[in-house]
């Protein structure tokens, strides 16, 4: 849905946006949220997502998901659900495409290594700035500060509603710091309770739906999990049985794809139906009431339980598979070594980073912006070691 026509009264209307940090005249042919989406797509950080890890490192195969393909899948799922609920599709797309802009190379392994490195700066004499490192917060830093595309301001100057959706999680300590910088801003709800817009809530759930589905696909493609193992997972096995009933004798990748397709469809329909019931039960009639309420975009209780069982299966059998853990360990080493190398010899950094006031944060920003393959090359250059032959 564009503009305000046809939108649910609880949806975000770009004509009533809370605005941008730096005021700008409206675009003549695009709504505020369409403009946000376009700025994200043309950003440097968005292009880098094509070479950033989802589960499998970029060099492990050309057909595995990356942060870019994941973001596109979240946007597609989000728009499909938003259309049925009469939410703002443009806002959903903008949030979905931007939500992983702050992810490090090597996925969560890189994030954890950077956080540990920043924490060491505090432990070894107070050189840290107290923020640590978290990819949601880094995504906000990317769109608020780190992108350099416009002469009048740093960042992309996105609307409040898009920025609110990007900041899915935030510790209380970091929320308090953000609140000082931006009173009653995007972090306020983490201090006062309440919820973000329905569009932001939807993106959060679409993210979960997307990664569960594509991690099944990538896990089977990699050979680390099998269709036989997945028969232990009620959510997946139900759709496998449906696929076989409709197409007797179906096997291999076609069976896998059809099972995932059926699962995705049912989860989308479940979110639509459950959210409608949730909105009715909560009795909210406006966006302001949505913000004062609990989370309203949701699975049914049964789908939530079955989805959680799938997540537990993937955690035990894919994310903690010995081969994945071994790669994760090397990835953490790369990020940790890079951080220490740049901190001890800032001349190895680009001048724009080396000259910044807070060196540890400049180093974290630089490493977070790297692709997997650039981080590997830099590590080899600085250390002489080859951790990923």
Radius of gyration, Cα only, in angstroms?
Answer: 22 Å
Helix content: 55-70%
Extended strand count? 0
> Whole-number average pLDDT?
93
Number of helices: 19
- Give the N-terminus to C-terminus distance in angstroms: 48 Å
Largest sheet: none
Strand content: under 5%
Low-confidence stretches: none
Decide which structural class fits the backbone.
Answer: mainly alpha
**SSE arrangement, N to C:** HHHHHHHHHHHHHHHHHHH
- Overall body shape: globular
Describe how the helices and strands are arranged.
Blueprint: H1 32-41, H2 44-48, H3 67-85, H4 89-98, H5 107-123, H6 135-146, H7 160-166, H8 172-181, H9 189-192, H10 198-222, H11 227-230, H12 234-246, H13 252-282, H14 287-291, H15 301-319, H16 322-344, H17 351-354, H18 359-368, H19 372-383
Helix pairs in contact: 1-4, 3-4, 3-10, 3-13, 4-7, 4-10, 5-16, 5-18, 7-10, 10-13, 10-15, 12-13, 16-18, 16-19
Structure description:
With 389 residues, this protein is mainly α. It has 19 helices and no strands. Helix 3 (67-85) runs antiparallel to helix 4. The radius of gyration is 22 Å and the shape is globular.
Please describe the structure with a list of short key phrases separated by commas or semicolons.
389 residues, mainly alpha, 19 helices, 0% strand, globular
Condensed summary:
This protein is mainly alpha-helical and 389 residues long. It has helices spanning 32-41, 44-48, 67-85, 89-98, 107-123, 135-146, 160-166, 172-181, 189-192, 198-222, 227-230, 234-246, 252-282, 287-291, 301-319, 322-344, 351-354, 359-368, 372-383.
